[in-house]
Amino acid sequence: MGKLLGGGLGFVIGGPIGAVLGAVFGHHVFDGGGSVLSLQEKRQSVFFVAVFSMLGKLSKADGKVTQAEIDAIEQVMRDNLRLDAQTRQLAIQVFNRAKDAGDSFDDYARQFYQEFRGQPEILSFLIDLLLLVANADGVSNPEEQSMLQRAVRIFHLEHAYEQIRARHSPTDSLDKSYEILGASTDESLAEIKQKYRRLVMEYHPDRVKARGVSPEFAAAAEARFKSIQHAFDLVEQQHKQRAS
Protein backbone atom coordinates (compact mmCIF):
# COMPACT_ATOMS: atom_id res chain seq x y z
CA MET A 1 0.00 0.00 0.00
CA GLY A 2 3.05 2.27 0.12
CA LYS A 3 2.50 3.98 -3.23
CA LEU A 4 -1.23 4.36 -2.60
CA LEU A 5 -0.58 6.03 0.72
CA GLY A 6 1.96 8.28 -0.96
CA GLY A 7 -0.49 9.39 -3.65
CA GLY A 8 0.41 10.69 -7.10
CA LEU A 9 -0.32 7.49 -8.99
CA GLY A 10 -0.41 7.25 -12.75
CA PHE A 11 -2.15 3.90 -13.20
CA VAL A 12 -5.90 4.30 -13.44
CA ILE A 13 -8.05 1.45 -12.13
CA GLY A 14 -11.54 1.54 -13.61
CA GLY A 15 -14.86 0.01 -12.61
CA PRO A 16 -16.46 0.13 -9.16
CA ILE A 17 -13.16 -0.73 -7.47
CA GLY A 18 -11.50 2.25 -9.17
CA ALA A 19 -14.41 4.46 -8.11
CA VAL A 20 -13.91 3.55 -4.45
CA LEU A 21 -10.16 4.01 -4.78
CA GLY A 22 -10.65 7.43 -6.34
CA ALA A 23 -13.17 8.47 -3.70
CA VAL A 24 -10.81 7.51 -0.87
CA PHE A 25 -7.66 9.05 -2.38
CA GLY A 26 -9.14 11.81 -4.52
CA HIS A 27 -7.12 13.26 -7.39
CA HIS A 28 -3.90 11.57 -6.23
CA VAL A 29 -4.93 8.30 -7.87
CA PHE A 30 -5.44 9.90 -11.25
CA ASP A 31 -3.07 12.83 -11.65
CA GLY A 32 -0.05 10.71 -12.53
CA GLY A 33 2.22 13.22 -10.84
CA GLY A 34 4.22 10.65 -8.92
CA SER A 35 4.89 6.95 -9.00
CA VAL A 36 3.33 4.65 -11.56
CA LEU A 37 1.91 1.37 -10.33
CA SER A 38 3.44 -1.75 -11.78
CA LEU A 39 1.04 -4.45 -12.97
CA GLN A 40 1.70 -6.41 -9.79
CA GLU A 41 1.04 -3.37 -7.58
CA LYS A 42 -2.12 -2.61 -9.51
CA ARG A 43 -3.41 -6.13 -8.89
CA GLN A 44 -2.52 -5.89 -5.22
CA SER A 45 -4.48 -2.62 -5.04
CA VAL A 46 -7.48 -4.27 -6.70
CA PHE A 47 -7.24 -7.15 -4.22
CA PHE A 48 -7.13 -4.83 -1.20
CA VAL A 49 -9.95 -2.53 -2.31
CA ALA A 50 -12.18 -5.39 -3.50
CA VAL A 51 -11.83 -7.32 -0.23
CA PHE A 52 -12.96 -4.44 1.96
CA SER A 53 -15.56 -3.21 -0.54
CA MET A 54 -17.24 -6.63 -0.68
CA LEU A 55 -16.99 -7.03 3.09
CA GLY A 56 -18.68 -3.65 3.41
CA LYS A 57 -21.53 -4.65 1.11
CA LEU A 58 -21.96 -7.98 2.88
CA SER A 59 -22.03 -6.38 6.33
CA LYS A 60 -24.71 -3.92 5.18
CA ALA A 61 -26.82 -6.63 3.52
CA ASP A 62 -29.56 -6.51 6.17
CA GLY A 63 -29.48 -2.72 6.42
CA LYS A 64 -27.11 -2.35 9.36
CA VAL A 65 -23.60 -3.32 10.42
CA THR A 66 -23.62 -5.20 13.74
CA GLN A 67 -20.97 -5.07 16.45
CA ALA A 68 -20.21 -8.75 15.81
CA GLU A 69 -19.48 -7.92 12.15
CA ILE A 70 -17.27 -4.99 13.17
CA ASP A 71 -15.35 -7.32 15.48
CA ALA A 72 -14.99 -9.83 12.62
CA ILE A 73 -13.62 -7.10 10.31
CA GLU A 74 -11.12 -6.18 13.02
CA GLN A 75 -10.10 -9.84 13.19
CA VAL A 76 -9.64 -9.97 9.41
CA MET A 77 -7.39 -6.90 9.51
CA ARG A 78 -5.42 -8.02 12.54
CA ASP A 79 -5.14 -11.80 12.22
CA ASN A 80 -5.90 -12.78 8.63
CA LEU A 81 -4.21 -9.92 6.75
CA ARG A 82 -1.88 -8.63 9.49
CA LEU A 83 -2.31 -5.00 8.49
CA ASP A 84 -0.35 -2.26 10.19
CA ALA A 85 -2.19 0.64 11.85
CA GLN A 86 -1.99 2.99 8.84
CA THR A 87 -3.22 0.38 6.36
CA ARG A 88 -6.04 -0.62 8.73
CA GLN A 89 -7.28 2.97 8.67
CA LEU A 90 -7.22 2.83 4.87
CA ALA A 91 -9.18 -0.43 4.92
CA ILE A 92 -11.84 1.15 7.16
CA GLN A 93 -12.17 4.07 4.72
CA VAL A 94 -12.66 1.68 1.81
CA PHE A 95 -15.17 -0.39 3.83
CA ASN A 96 -17.24 2.66 4.81
CA ARG A 97 -17.18 4.16 1.32
CA ALA A 98 -18.14 0.94 -0.47
CA LYS A 99 -20.93 -0.17 1.89
CA ASP A 100 -22.98 2.92 0.96
CA ALA A 101 -21.86 3.24 -2.67
CA GLY A 102 -24.31 2.77 -5.54
CA ASP A 103 -22.43 -0.13 -7.13
CA SER A 104 -23.69 -3.59 -6.17
CA PHE A 105 -21.90 -6.44 -4.42
CA ASP A 106 -22.00 -8.36 -7.72
CA ASP A 107 -20.27 -5.48 -9.55
CA TYR A 108 -17.27 -5.73 -7.22
CA ALA A 109 -17.28 -9.54 -7.47
CA ARG A 110 -17.23 -9.47 -11.28
CA GLN A 111 -14.32 -7.03 -11.42
CA PHE A 112 -12.41 -9.07 -8.86
CA TYR A 113 -13.00 -12.21 -10.92
CA GLN A 114 -11.78 -10.54 -14.10
CA GLU A 115 -8.52 -9.65 -12.34
CA PHE A 116 -7.93 -13.00 -10.60
CA ARG A 117 -9.78 -15.60 -12.69
CA GLY A 118 -6.54 -17.51 -13.24
CA GLN A 119 -5.83 -17.78 -9.51
CA PRO A 120 -8.53 -19.87 -7.81
CA GLU A 121 -6.68 -19.80 -4.50
CA ILE A 122 -7.20 -16.01 -4.32
CA LEU A 123 -10.85 -16.33 -5.33
CA SER A 124 -11.46 -18.98 -2.67
CA PHE A 125 -9.64 -16.86 -0.10
CA LEU A 126 -12.10 -14.00 -0.62
CA ILE A 127 -15.01 -16.41 -0.14
CA ASP A 128 -13.25 -17.51 3.05
CA LEU A 129 -13.21 -13.94 4.39
CA LEU A 130 -16.83 -13.34 3.40
CA LEU A 131 -17.86 -16.47 5.28
CA LEU A 132 -15.95 -15.32 8.35
CA VAL A 133 -17.94 -12.07 8.48
CA ALA A 134 -21.25 -13.65 7.48
CA ASN A 135 -20.97 -16.12 10.37
CA ALA A 136 -19.80 -13.52 12.88
CA ASP A 137 -23.14 -12.94 14.60
CA GLY A 138 -24.15 -16.60 14.61
CA VAL A 139 -27.25 -15.87 12.50
CA SER A 140 -27.85 -17.21 9.00
CA ASN A 141 -28.99 -14.05 7.24
CA PRO A 142 -30.82 -14.77 3.93
CA GLU A 143 -29.44 -11.63 2.26
CA GLU A 144 -25.88 -12.51 3.24
CA GLN A 145 -26.29 -16.12 2.14
CA SER A 146 -27.63 -14.94 -1.22
CA MET A 147 -24.60 -12.68 -1.70
CA LEU A 148 -22.24 -15.53 -0.85
CA GLN A 149 -23.92 -17.87 -3.31
CA ARG A 150 -23.74 -15.23 -6.05
CA ALA A 151 -20.04 -14.65 -5.41
CA VAL A 152 -19.42 -18.41 -5.57
CA ARG A 153 -21.18 -18.56 -8.96
CA ILE A 154 -19.35 -15.50 -10.32
CA PHE A 155 -16.02 -17.01 -9.22
CA HIS A 156 -16.99 -20.47 -10.62
CA LEU A 157 -16.22 -22.10 -7.27
CA GLU A 158 -19.38 -24.17 -6.89
CA HIS A 159 -17.29 -27.36 -6.75
CA ALA A 160 -15.13 -26.01 -3.92
CA TYR A 161 -17.68 -24.17 -1.79
CA GLU A 162 -18.36 -26.94 0.75
CA GLN A 163 -14.62 -27.43 1.16
CA ILE A 164 -14.14 -23.71 1.85
CA ARG A 165 -17.15 -23.53 4.14
CA ALA A 166 -15.93 -26.47 6.22
CA ARG A 167 -13.19 -24.32 7.72
CA HIS A 168 -15.86 -22.25 9.47
CA SER A 169 -17.47 -25.15 11.28
CA PRO A 170 -17.39 -24.44 15.05
CA THR A 171 -16.21 -27.95 15.88
CA ASP A 172 -12.81 -29.54 15.29
CA SER A 173 -14.29 -32.78 13.97
CA LEU A 174 -13.15 -35.47 11.59
CA ASP A 175 -16.03 -34.61 9.26
CA LYS A 176 -14.73 -31.04 9.08
CA SER A 177 -11.20 -32.31 8.36
CA TYR A 178 -12.41 -34.51 5.50
CA GLU A 179 -14.29 -31.57 3.99
CA ILE A 180 -11.28 -29.26 4.25
CA LEU A 181 -9.25 -31.83 2.32
CA GLY A 182 -12.02 -32.41 -0.21
CA ALA A 183 -11.96 -36.09 0.70
CA SER A 184 -14.49 -38.70 1.79
CA THR A 185 -14.42 -41.32 4.54
CA ASP A 186 -14.48 -44.23 2.10
CA GLU A 187 -11.21 -43.19 0.41
CA SER A 188 -7.92 -44.81 1.31
CA LEU A 189 -5.22 -42.89 3.15
CA ALA A 190 -3.12 -42.96 -0.03
CA GLU A 191 -5.94 -41.31 -2.02
CA ILE A 192 -6.47 -38.69 0.67
CA LYS A 193 -2.74 -38.02 0.84
CA GLN A 194 -2.73 -37.21 -2.89
CA LYS A 195 -5.41 -34.57 -2.34
CA TYR A 196 -3.56 -33.25 0.67
CA ARG A 197 -0.33 -32.89 -1.31
CA ARG A 198 -2.13 -30.94 -4.06
CA LEU A 199 -3.50 -28.53 -1.47
CA VAL A 200 -0.11 -28.20 0.20
CA MET A 201 1.49 -27.31 -3.12
CA GLU A 202 -1.24 -24.74 -3.80
CA TYR A 203 -1.01 -23.01 -0.43
CA HIS A 204 2.62 -23.53 0.60
CA PRO A 205 3.90 -20.11 1.81
CA ASP A 206 7.02 -20.20 -0.39
CA ARG A 207 4.98 -21.03 -3.49
CA VAL A 208 2.42 -18.33 -2.72
CA LYS A 209 5.11 -15.67 -2.22
CA ALA A 210 6.79 -16.70 -5.48
CA ARG A 211 3.62 -15.73 -7.36
CA GLY A 212 4.15 -12.12 -6.38
CA VAL A 213 0.93 -11.78 -4.39
CA SER A 214 0.47 -9.09 -1.78
CA PRO A 215 1.94 -9.63 1.71
CA GLU A 216 -1.64 -9.58 3.04
CA PHE A 217 -2.65 -12.55 0.94
CA ALA A 218 0.60 -14.39 1.72
CA ALA A 219 -0.16 -14.12 5.45
CA ALA A 220 -3.69 -15.42 4.95
CA ALA A 221 -2.50 -18.29 2.75
CA GLU A 222 -0.15 -19.33 5.54
CA ALA A 223 -3.14 -19.68 7.89
CA ARG A 224 -4.96 -21.79 5.29
CA PHE A 225 -1.85 -23.93 4.88
CA LYS A 226 -1.78 -24.65 8.61
CA SER A 227 -5.47 -25.61 8.66
CA ILE A 228 -4.87 -28.07 5.81
CA GLN A 229 -1.95 -29.63 7.69
CA HIS A 230 -4.03 -29.93 10.86
CA ALA A 231 -6.92 -31.54 8.98
CA PHE A 232 -4.64 -34.15 7.42
CA ASP A 233 -3.02 -34.90 10.79
CA LEU A 234 -6.45 -35.75 12.25
CA VAL A 235 -7.45 -37.89 9.28
CA GLU A 236 -4.12 -39.69 9.17
CA GLN A 237 -4.36 -40.41 12.89
CA GLN A 238 -7.80 -41.97 12.42
CA HIS A 239 -6.57 -44.21 9.60
CA LYS A 240 -3.60 -45.35 11.63
CA GLN A 241 -5.85 -46.21 14.56
CA ARG A 242 -8.07 -48.25 12.25
CA ALA A 243 -5.06 -50.15 10.94
CA SER A 244 -3.63 -50.96 14.38
Q: Could you spell the SSE succession in H and E letters? A: HHHHHHHHHHHHH
Rg, please?
19 Å
Largest sheet: none
Uncertain spans: 5-11, 27-32
Number of helices: 13
Shape: globular
β-strand percent reads under 5%
Report what the structure shows.
The longest helix has 29 residues. Helix 2 packs across helix 3, helix 4 runs antiparallel to helix 7 and helix 6 packs parallel to helix 8. With 244 residues, the chain is mostly helical. It has 13 helices and no strands.
Primary descriptors:
244 residues, mainly alpha, 70% helix, 0% strand
Could you write a compact summary of the structure shown?
By secondary structure, the chain is mostly helical. 70% of the residues lie in helices and 0% in strands. It starts with a helix and ends with a helix.
Give the helices and strands, then pairings.
Blueprint: H1 2-6, H2 15-25, H3 39-59, H4 67-80, H5 85-99, H6 105-116, H7 120-134, H8 142-154, H9 161-166, H10 174-181, H11 189-203, H12 205-210, H13 215-243
Helix pairs in contact: 2-3, 2-5, 3-5, 3-6, 3-7, 4-7, 6-8, 7-8, 10-13, 11-13
